[in-house]
Design goal:
Elements lengths: L8 E8 L5 H11 L17 H6 L6 E9 L2 E9 L7 H8 L4 E7 L6 H12 L3 E7 L8 H12 L7 E2 L8 H11 L12 E10 L3 E10 L1 E3 L3 E4 L5 E3 L2 E5 L3 E3 L2 E3 L3 E5 L13 E4 L18 E7 L5 H14 L4 E7 L3 E8 L2 H14 L4 E3 L6 E5 L4 E4 L11 E16 L3 H10 L3 E9 L2 E9 H4 L3 H8 L5 E12 L1 E8 L2 E2 L5 E4 L3 H15 L7 E7 L2 E8 L15 H21 L6 H12 L8
Parallel strand pairs: 1-3, 1-4, 4-5, 5-6
Antiparallel strand pairs: 2-3, 7-8, 7-16, 8-15, 9-14, 10-11, 10-16, 12-13, 12-15, 17-19, 17-20, 18-19, 21-22, 21-23, 23-25, 23-26, 24-25, 27-28, 27-29, 27-30, 30-31
Helix pairs in contact: 12-14
């Protein structure tokens, strides 16, 4: 049985802003340590999903074991490559809990960005050793000395502590690897010798069942052992134990400090939750490891199958996907217009897009997703607080005392010449100015408090447009604040269409109502009678569009003859349309809903692209 000295183990991760070269640096580590053949592997080797490769971003944290020999001693390096986008901060926080060190990567051309600072704060909260590295020094536009000054100011380290490398060419990468061995402390086994392993990720395998990825903190996890989850209370057998190098490699056991996987054969995805502590049933540990804070979704949207027969398939797909991504939530929802579906909560707009794309690709589903909205806290006149996740849940206007909306603390970093347009955009979005700091002679950090609802409705696209792509954004949920918000309802032929209800600031309700009514007029097919499309707030009509009746030429069969015959037919048709208008119902086709939702999405997509 293989027993490794814990002093020769290093657990570390790579953290950075999106597109600063994390996955490329991981590729060079894999080549230098012999995990893959140089030049034989595809770029961004650890990005396994097609979606990651298409978008050029890391969505899932990926663990891999590397072996490196230094001064005659072989070291085991457990690397976890993390996402960079703010929507996947939960992946980063879970990764940091399984490591002792972090490589903080900064682009030599772009410098310190918003998510660089956000990820740095996360690493410091977890007490990790931070190794600052400036990447892409081979670029013609690289300014490593200027960027080093920014890093020194933020980290408060000596300039000599900042390393330079080019992950693309391999220059300086070996020095980074050796600094990890020298500076990152080995894992501590703790005083208790009983098995405690932190479950930091999971996936579902068709043949192996639930496969959990663990960091063994104390004790030993052996193949065939009876194991239990301390929080969930479930029991299982460790059918297969091993590590990733980078594919799954079977091993007899995992000892304290090691990172690996355990396959249990369990098919129920809820019995092995991420963040739980795994121990052996025979001599169970008494104190669980500190888990993770439950992620709090900030953006909600409805997911509905286009074919109602796919509802059960969607339910099963969501359960399996949540095992792989526990940061989104879902609960059943029914819509008069769209049928049965689920109200899902996401950490951001990019997270919402990725979950939908994965459901469609990996589970072969065709889905409709409703426009995203945020959670509001509504206080009625009796003093009761109601949590509203869907605008249709909003109580009647005459019973509402006040509405509170979520605010985020917004961090924006951009070149100095972009400050004016960005500040103008923030003021239009009801943002409250907090601070402005010059990171360098031409790098400015702006801080704002902004309603989350304003941020999810196309703010990112407009920010990139006004800053010509140079501004970066990071945000964190702050608190709830009262605002002048009202529920805007859309009525078709006098009936409220729940799928189009939305919560908007009072001063924008009329303009938004006109916009929605005009759009709906263009997508609803004409009926045999005149149709009223209205927008209302608190029962008061604030906008109206009229869809003319479909013209049917009842006089087509009349060839010549007296005009009185035609007039008689027209009057008869007119009376029929009047009766139909009084008793007729309008069935809005699904194509109209899809067209409306796509028009809403056009203002929210593009995040992270």
């Amino acid at each position: 049985m293989r027993i490794l000295d814990p002093s020769h183990i290093r657990n570390f991760c790579i953290i950075a802003h999106i597109d600063h070269g994390k996955s490329t640096l991981a590729d060079r580590f894999l080549e230098i340590t012999g995990a893959i053949e140089p030049g034989m592997a595809r770029p961004q080797f650890l990005d396994r999903m097609d979606l990651e490769r298409e978008r050029g971003i890391t969505i899932k944290a990926q663990a891999v074991r590397l072996s490196y020999e230094l001064a005659g001693q072989t070291y085991e390096l457990n690397l976890i490559d993390t996402p960079g986008h703010v929507d996947f901060n939960y992946e980063v926080s879970r990764t940091l809990a399984a490591c002792e060190g972090a490589v903080l990567l900064v682009d030599a051309a772009q410098g310190v960005e918003a998510q660089t600072i956000g990820n740095l704060h996360l690493a410091r909260e977890n007490g990790l050793t931070i190794i600052p590295v400036i990447n892409k020094v081979d670029l013609p536009s690289a300014e490593p000395e200027r960027v080093r000054e920014e890093v020194v100011d933020i980290l408060e380290v000596e300039p000599a502590d900042v390393l330079f490398c080019s992950a693309k060419t391999g220059e300086g990468v070996r020095a980074v690897l050796e600094s990890i061995i020298a500076l990152v402390p080995p894992p501590s086994a703790g005083e208790d010798a009983r098995l405690r392993a932190l479950v930091f990720d999971s996936t579902y395998d068709q043949y192996r069942g639930v496969v959990t990825f663990v960091r063994v903190v104390s004790g030993r996890l052996e193949e065939g052992a009876e194991i239990g989850m301390m929080a969930a209370g479930s029991q299982a057998v460790a059918e297969t134990v091993g590590y990733l190098s980078p594919d799954m490699v079977r091993a007899d056991s995992l000892s304290a400090g090691e990172v690996g996987f355990v396959a249990t054969g369990i098919k129920d995805v809820s019995k092995l939750p991420v963040g739980d502590t795994l121990t052996v049933s025979a001599d169970a540990a008494t104190e669980p490891l500190p888990g993770y804070r439950e992620p709090k979704p900030v953006v909600f949207a409805g997911l509905f199958p286009i074919e109602n027969s796919d509802y059960q398939n969607l339910r099963e797909a969501l359960a399996k996907l949540r095992l792989n991504d526990s940061s989104f939530t879902y609960e059943p929802e029914t819509s008069q217009a769209l049928g049965f579906g689920f109200r899902c909560g996401f950490l951001g707009l990019l997270h919402m897009e990725v979950v939908r794309d994965r459901l469609e690709r990996e589970y072969d589903l065709e889905l409709i997703i409703t426009p995203p909205n945020v959670v509001y806290r509504v206080t009625d006149k009796a003093g009761e607080v109601i949590v509203v996740k869907n605008p249709s849940e909003m109580p009647p206007a005459n019973s509402v005392a006040k509405v509170a909306e979520p605010y985020v603390s917004l961090l924006l970093i951009m070149p100095g010449e972009m400050v004016g347009p960005v500040m103008e955009l923030c003021q239009q979005r009801r943002a409250l100015y907090r601070d402005m700091v010059y990171l360098s002679t031409n790098r400015v950090e702006l801080s704002y408090d902004m309603p989350l609802g304003e941020m999810v409705s196309g703010f990112y696209d407009q920010l990139k447009s006004r800053s010509r792509g140079y501004a970066s954004l990071d945000y964190e949920l702050e608190d709830y604040r009262d605002g002048p918000l009202v529920k805007l309802e859309i009525m078709v032929h006098g009936e409220v269409v729940d799928a189009f209800s939305t919560i908007v600031p009072r001063d924008r309700a009329q303009a938004r109502g006109r916009e929605l009514a005009a759009k709906l007029k263009s997508v609803i097919p004409r009926q045999l009678f005149e149709l009223a499309i209205q927008a209302s707030v608190g029962g008061r009509i604030i906008s109206r569009e009229t869809l003319p009746a479909r013209k049917k030429d009842v006089t087509a069969k009349c060839y010549g003859g007296d005009i009185t015959r035609k007039r008689k037919l027209w009057e008869k048709q007119k009376a029929g349309k009047k009766r139909m208008k009084m008793v007729g119902r309008v069935e809005i086709p699904q194509e109209a809903f899809v067209a409306m939702i796509k028009s809403e999405e056009s203002g929210t997509q593009g995040t992270g692209r």
